[in-house]
Description:
The chain is an alpha/beta fold.
Amino acid sequence: MTAIPDLGAKLRISEIFHSLQGESSRVGLPTVFVRLTGCPLRCTWCDTAYAFTGGEAMAIGDVLERVASFGCPVVCVTGGEPLAQKHCLPLLTALCDAGYSVSLETSGALDISGVDPRVSRIVDLKAPGSGETEKNLWSNLDHLTSRDELKLVLASEADYRWAVDALTRHDLARRCAVLFSPVQGVLAPADLAQWILRDRLPVRFQLQLHKVLWGNTQGR
Length: 220
């Protein structure tokens, strides 16, 4: 049984906002984003470096109150790397207990086994072009279920070949949905789409919808 979270426990929050989900199988859904501050990784293509530092200390209860103000049933906890904060786990449980449909966006460098099973875990496997491949915690794959997803952001054809090898070597498509995404402005989306079709991969191609709509403004 999942422990009752301490609503007074505090996290450092970079921002809480309402937008459309730009990634994963939830793409296009109105969503409240809770972005936690801090990340132990430094991916070359990171687009949320502003969340590495700063933010506001907030109790879990205050986060719930802010989320409720948007009147939206779907919540995404993201970062930075949200699991780098020890009170991320009770936050996720508190959101589930409050009746929200919750997803977690995580780099995959930290252990996901303690995440509330009601949460959909969107795990980002780091390809070589990210500069952080060695941070991948491969044991996380054993904890994935059909409600989770793997995201691979690719910057080159070499990244694509690495991703295909990982797909085959670890039988990723059997574990959960797998999404291949091009780094905006670096890898042409049409090239990635053509490679996926050519190789008949059991993956989903995705673009970051929020960037298509609003550019690099994080969906607002």
